[in-house]
From TrEMBL:
Superkingdom field: Eukaryota
Any GO BP: monoatomic ion transport
Secretion signal, residue range per the UniProt entry: 1-17
Name of the protein described by the UniProt record: G-protein coupled receptors family 1 profile domain-containing protein
Keywords attached to this entry: Membrane, Signal, Transmembrane, Transmembrane helix
Transmembrane segments: 30-47, 59-79, 99-121
GO CC annotation terms, alphabetical: membrane
InterPro entries cross-referenced by the UniProt entry: Neuro-gated_channel_TM_sf, Neuro_actylchol_rec
Length: 156
């Protein structure tokens, strides 16, 4: 599980490196982003082939699909780089690119933190529910069989 999560994380976080390419080189950015998108889809396919087939989405499936959506969102700043917003298109392009980097980096970090918390919180919550059920069953067992033993002890 962690091998898959970590590799998907690395593929998705590598998309942030496209912002190191100058905004005027949009074809280089597009090439890297599409390569990472294809890598992510291929990795998801390979992981699904190695796991048993089930009819519902697992947490790993949700994480992989959300990462593919995140990779697709990196294509948006590339598409908006064609806009010229002022008399100095290179300056406005760099500023727009920087804002895109900050927003997408923040969204990526927030998403990773939320997924990490959800990954630990959901099993912990289920474990607490099972622990409460075990305690209740133990109390019921003791009260049921404890009384019969004490009553059988009085008879003897």
């Amino acid at each position: 599980m962690w091998n898959a999560y970590f590799l998907i994380f690395l593929i998705t976080s590598a998309a942030l490196s496209t912002f190191s390419i100058p905004p005027s080189n949009s074809h280089g950015r597009l090439q890297i982003t599409c390569t990472l998108l294809l890598t992510s889809v291929t990795f998801r396919w390979v992981v699904n082939k190695s796991l048993p087939t089930i009819s519902y989405l697992t947490a790993l499936d949700i994480y992989a699909i959300a990462s593919i959506v995140a990779l697709s969102s990196y294509l948006t700043p590339i598409a908006t780089n064609a806009l010229h917003l002022s008399l100095y298109p290179e300056y406005s392009l760099c500023r727009l690119d920087r804002y895109g980097f900050y927003i997408l980096s923040f969204a990526f970090c927030l998403y990773q933190i939320l997924i990490l918390l959800w990954t630990f919180w959901t099993p912990y919550k289920r474990r607490r529910v099972m622990q409460r059920k075990d305690e209740k069953n133990r109390e019921d067992f003791i009260s049921k069989f404890g009384q019969s033993e004490s009553s059988s002890g009085k008879v003897n």
